[in-house]
Design brief:
The chain is an alpha/beta fold. The chain has a 6-stranded parallel beta sheet with strand order 1-11-8-7-5-6. α2 crosses α10 and α6 crosses α7. It is globular and about 50 Å long. The N and C termini lie far apart (about 50 Å).
């Protein structure tokens, strides 16, 4: 069997950003307004700092107004909630994202709950999660967590028709596993949510036409688990002791069996920020009747 097709997340994300830039340019020409994305970073975690800088850069590239609010690590819960209340009330702010993880003394759930659901471009507010679970609103009209949304766009790039396919999602997190399962259900897939404690996980995965690996363990999903010709979306980003990044799927094994697979890096990762920009545009249009 020939090697799997590599799903080029960089190229697909670049194409999505180009579409967003064209739409933002049209909005600017028609109204003089542009979507505003505001990111709140508490503390000075190196990885978060790099990620926020990348979000700023790409938001500016597509023509959006991008602002980062960098708060000291000792910021109190009350101070952070006050900042969010300020952003909620500011009509020039269309998207609010609080960079996670937060310092341990802050309550993440309360912080997410404090974001205006209409500006929650991370798609994590309980109201947005409930709308997704309800399944009565089209995903393109929702604020959906960015990584699951990006994963679905990657799937559709190689599988235009998802209806009737069997999908196994490995991982049950609120950030990836559960929302991507909801999106697959909306696409009329038959969906199983599995995890590290699933009995005979290999046999569960082996029946899947689509595998979404989001368990957070490097090389956890073995190539022999993959059904020949299946499409594999590897959400995992794990840093090995030698500094290299690797996914949750044993790539060298799986690429010999799968029909299509995302590499790590260069697969799902680039789509996350592109979908954040898409959510910001979605919020702008919904709030302003566009």
């Amino acid at each position: 069997m020939p090697q799997a097709r590599l799903i080029d997340g960089k190229a697909i994300a670049a194409a999505l950003r180009s579409e967003i830039a064209a739409e933002v340019a049209g909005i600017r020409a028609a109204s003089g307004k542009v979507p505003g994305l505001h990111v709140v970073l508490v503390g000075d975690d190196p990885a978060s700092r790099v990620y926020v800088a990348s979000k700023e850069k790409l938001a500016v590239e597509v023509g959006m107004n991008s602002v980062a609010h960098r708060l000291p690590a000792e910021t109190t819960q009350a101070e952070l909630l006050a900042k969010l209340a300020e952003l909620n009330a500011d009509d020039t702010v269309d998207g609010i994202l609080v960079q996670l993880p937060l310092p341990k003394h802050l309550d993440t759930a309360d912080v997410i709950d404090a974001i205006d659901p209409a500006k929650d471009v991370d798609g994590l507010h309980p109201l947005n999660a409930g709308r997704l679970a309800g399944g009565k609103i089209a995903p393109e009209q929702l604020l959906v967590p960015c990584t699951p949304l990006g994963s679905m766009l990657l799937l559709k790039s190689v599988l235009p028709a998802l209806s009737g396919l069997e999908a196994v999602v490995i991982g049950r997190s609120e950030l990836v596993g559960r929302p991507v399962a909801q999106l697959l259900l909306q696409a009329d897939c038959t969906v199983t949510i599995a995890h590290s404690r699933t009995r005979d996980l290999a046999s569960v995965v082996r029946r899947a036409d689509i595998v979404v690996a989001a368990v957070g363990r490097p090389g956890f999903v073995r190539g022999e688990w993959i059904k020949p010709g299946a499409t594999v979306i590897d959400v995992g980003i794990n840093r090995l002791p030698d500094g290299k990044l690797t996914g949750d799927v044993a790539f060298a094994e799986a690429v010999e069996i799968a029909g299509a697979i995302t590499p790590v890096p260069g697969g799902v990762g680039p789509m996350t920020i592109a979908c954040l920009l898409r959510n910001t545009l979605t919020s702008f249009k919904a709030r302003r009747g566009g």
